[in-house]
Amino acid sequence: xxxxxxxxxxxxxxxxxxxxxREKVGLSSPQLFRSVTYNMKKFFRGEVYVKDIEKGQDFxxxxxxxxxxxxxxxxxxxxxxxxxxxxxxxxxxxMITGGYKDEQRQKLLRLKERHGVRILGPNTVMGVxxxxxxxNTTFEMDLMPKRGSIAVxxxxxxxxxxLLDWACYYKIGISKFAFMGDKIDVDDADLLRYLAKDxxxxxxxxxMEGVKNGRKFMEEARKIVVEKxxxxxxxxxxxxxxxxxxxxxxxxxxxxxxxxxxxxxxGIIRVEDPEELLNxxxxxxxxxxxxxxxxxxxxxxxxxxxxAADAVARINLKxxxxxxxxKRKIESLHPGLDATNPIDIIADARADRYKKILExxxxxxxxxxxxxxxxxxxxxxxxxxxxxxxxxxxxxxxKPVVDVATGGEDFVLVYRAIGESNIPVYNLPEKGVKVLKxxxxxxxxxxxxxxxxxx
Length: 455
What we know:
- The structure is a single chain.
- This protein has 16 helices and 18 strands.
- It is an alpha/beta fold.
- The protein folds into 3 domains: 1-125, Rossmann fold (3-Layer(aba) Sandwich), CATH 3.40.50.720; 145-286, Succinyl-CoA synthetase domains (Rossmann fold), CATH 3.40.50; 288-448, 3-Layer(aba) Sandwich (Rossmann fold), CATH 3.40.50.
- Helix 2 (30-43) links the parallel strand 1 (12-17) and strand 2.
């Protein structure tokens, strides 16, 4: 096991904190120590050792040396405990708390040089999650996302916490979650290298404010994107926010134009906000890349379908021109049906009509991807009718399909019905179109790299 592997896959972990020490400014507190200990003992399927520095516990009493130490103390005390752990043979450290001065960071780096350990942080705030083995160093008690295939690397504790909360609320499947903090040692490139070989991970999400070694990061990303898409949300794109990013996580944010060009060269897909990051990640984890620009819209309401068609045009995709044969077959199914794309299949459409029309649309060679809209209010459609969608689309695994249940309550009901299937569900037509654009962007990346598998 490598030192970076030990951050996510240790057989044993030691938690080091204080039951009394509380910083006036900073994360060190008995409450944090208790909460991390609670989560680790509840979720982690390995050995958990706990050292309270107030109790004078001896490392020699441990039955075996853990690979990972999670330290939740002020800087100087954290460094002292890390020194003891490194001498004992611990391979990796997660440094939860922040407030480190430059000379204290240098002490940690000298520790790495002497003992060959790896350090995540300091100032990671919540450390890491591995849903496969239950490793969970967060201090929000009982917080554990559903196991899945999306990995998240966040340089910010706050943005990471937002993404984690979103994932838990919508039951988005997570493989790994890493809060990076100040990145004095383990950086984005190290974690990309780890996630590249992680069998649990299919999609990688990044929130970053800056990068230490841009060349190393881009080289790792270029190797990964042919197998696993990488999405990036970049903070610090304005002069004012870039200055704040530097003080926030001790990172140089750099020119946004340079980052944008580098992302494109490496095949990293850039997104604009946390919601789009997770929306895109869900689509990429469930659906194939799109190898053409032509979208078919199938809807039981007219207005949202028109809004979707507008969104298709705005982001430079195209409305598919259905073949005459497809049109004729669709229009023969029900009086009043007009097979002009976007296809309004009328408000009384139930599962059977959706099934027949989706089958015809997906079989059409002029269609590269499909956006489905199903409203409940003002329509006859029922949530259970949505279950026909994953059944039909499974027959066409090379054509991406996304579903839109417009609104609030309607979205919740349809999401409950098919949210755990291979169909991503969104609450507005524009969001569905945006993720189709991202699936097309990934298709273009694979085409450029010679890895596309067209129909």
